[in-house]
Amino acid sequence: MSTTAGGDSKRRSRSPVMRARDVVPAALSVVLLLGVAGCMGAFGGGPLDGDASPSVSVQAPSSTPAPETEDDDAPVPGPTPSFVGVPEGEEPPEYLDSFRELLAESKRKGLEVPGFASREDLFSCGEYIRAQGVSWDEPQEGWDCLAEHLEDGAELVLVSPTTEGDPIITYYRVGPGIDGLEYFTDASFDKFGGDTWTRTVCKLDPSDVRRSLESCSGEDLR
User: Fold this and answer.
1) Buried b vs exposed e over 181-191: b needs ≥16 C-beta within 10 Å?
2) With contact defined as beta carbons under 8 Å apart, do 219 and 198 qualify?
3) How far apart are CA 49 and CA 70, in angstroms?
4) How far apart are CA 175 and CA 147, in angstroms?
5) pLDDT tens string 2-48
6) Domain limits at 124?
7) pLDDT grade for 79, boundaries at 50, 70 and 90
8) Stretch among 28-37, 84-93, 107-116, 139-148 having the lowest mean pLDDT
9) Per the domain annotation, does 77 fall within a domain?
10) Distance CA 220, CA 222 (A)
11) For the segment 130-185, what is each residue's pLDDT rounded down to a tens digit?
12) What is the C-alpha to C-alpha distance for residues 154 and 176, in angstroms, rounded to an integer?
């Protein structure tokens, strides 16, 4: 009995040592594993094999593709022009409707015209195609828009038919870098006017931009 009791006493006295001897290596293993994982993270390493979680890929948004044109080097025409002098609800006459394409062609041809091609981009006061007989005061909202942008600059585009029905395209401009009211005239589609572009500068009347056209001087660009 005493032997058994003594043996149990010895086993009980040794068991704490045995438990510490078993626990210490396991703890050291955990510390080593954590150290290795930390080193891998510091040097850009990935997750350990067998415990990899799926990575999230963030893709930068792509830019909006440019509108397609027949000629990749040609500029994209501006917004569809408004018609002036055509009764509401009615289709514009065929000759006026064709002026839209001619306006887009004018912008492309203008890239070869000195002075016009290098003009500064300005705020748009709109593009208007006027029917036969429409007053030069129209559209009033276009002229009012120029008057509102004398300080920061703006451009108004008007397409007007001649008596024979050919388009004259005019780009009216005001702004801080312009001495008065400036306008470029494309008469290249006028069968009776010749293939001409002109630049005209007028003394600006801030109270009535349209009235500025009464005092002007121009030059041929080509």
Assistant:
1) bbbbbbbbbbe
2) yes
3) 55
4) 10
5) 344 444 444 444 444 444 445 444 444 444 444 434 434 444 443 33
6) 82-220
7) low
8) 28-37
9) no
10) 6
11) 999 999 899 999 999 999 999 999 999 999 999 999 999 999 999 998 999 999 99
12) 10
Domain co-membership, 11 together with 107: no
Contact 130, 85 (CB under 8 A): yes
Category of 151 on φ-ψ map: left (φ > 0), alpha (ψ -120 to 50) or beta: alpha
Determine if the peptide bond prior to 75 is cis (ω within 30°): no
Where are any strands of DSSP class E within the chain? Answer: 82-84, 123-130, 154-161, 167-174, 181-186, 197-202, 216-220
- Asked whether residue 103 falls in the same domain as residue 202, the answer is yes
DSSP class of 173: E
Residue type, 51: D
- Helix residue spans in 43-189 (DSSP H): 94-97, 99-109, 140-148
Domain assignment present for residue 66? The answer is no
On whether the CB atoms of residues 190 and 161 are closer than 8 A, the answer is no
- Domain count within the chain: 2
Q: How far apart are CA 125 and CA 79, in angstroms?
A: 11
Contacts of 112 (CB under 8 A, 6+ apart): none
